[in-house]
Amino acid sequence: MGEWIRAERAAGRARGGGMTGACQPRLVVSLGLGWVDPHLVVPIPGQRARLPGTGAVCSRSKLGTSAIRLLVPLYVFGCPENFVRIKPQFWVCWLLLAWVGVQVAALAAQHALGPRCFIPDKYLPEVYDYHRTVEEDVLASAGGGDEECGEAGGVDCVICMNAVEAREPRRRMVTPCNHFFHQECLERWMDVKMECPTCRGALPPL
Predict the structure, then answer these.
(1) Distances (CA, A) of 182 to 9, 71, 160, 185
(2) CA 65, CA 68: separation in Å to the nearest integer?
(3) Phi/psi at 100 (5° precision)
(4) Which of 36-40, 116-120, 174-178 has maximum average pLDDT?
(5) DSSP classification of residue 11
(6) What pLDDT, on a 0 to 100 scale, did the predictor assign at position 176?
(7) Cα 24 from Cα 18, distance rounded (Å)
(8) Which of 38, 13, 46 is nearest to 205 (CA)?
């Protein structure tokens, strides 16, 4: 029995270590390449969609997670004295670095451009435009018909109680129920509840 064990150990060392030559790269590479960051496919549960530049995925967290994922395979295939006795295969290290780099770049693009930046517009559901142009009668009914009533034409944000520039689409937001708010105010409000602060009507996601 002792001779047989020694012979098996010698054969394992000749093949490159304790793992068989056939499964050396496959197991570790599958651990590194077989897992795709779920945030590339599914948004974080409970989080609303955000405008470009306001992504919720933490860059430092993603970089740290990616680095941790690479520790074991880079050690196994890049360290000549690794504990599993696998011969260094630097091409595997480069392959793993390239694959994880692609995932990090995709996450960075989603962080900067929005989580759906890779999907063509024709395949996306219709999204409500909170910066839409409104008719004059809507402005009048909201109190903004007379520009001489003040900077906002008489329209106030009920969240902060300050004037809203209702005639500046990029500087205000209007709900489907035609209520006007500052962009910063309404976005913070929607982080808490998806209801109109004025009439409690349902708000579509950003």
Answers:
(1) 72, 46, 8, 5
(2) 5
(3) -65, -35
(4) 174-178
(5) H
(6) 92
(7) 9
(8) 46
Amino acid in the structure at residue 15: R
Residue 178 identity (one-letter amino acid):
N
Q: Taking every pair of C-alpha atoms in the chain, what is the biggest distance, in angstroms?
A: 101
Q: How far is the C-alpha of 19 from the C-alpha of 25, rounded, in Å?
A: 10
**Beta strands of 95-153 (E only): which ranges?**
none
| Phi-psi category of residue 33: left, alpha or beta, with phi > 0 → left and psi -120 to 50 → alpha | alpha
At 39 the three-state DSSP class reads helix
Tell me the per-residue pLDDT of 90-100, one tens digit each, with 9 for 90 and over: 888 898 889 88
Neighbours of 130 (CB within 10 A): 20
- Contact indicator for 56, 112 with CB cutoff of 8 Å: no
| Residues counted in the chain | 206
User: What type of residue is 189?
Assistant: W
Q: Which two structure tokens, joined as six digits, stand for 190?
A: 């929607």
Lookup: tokens for 142: 């909201």
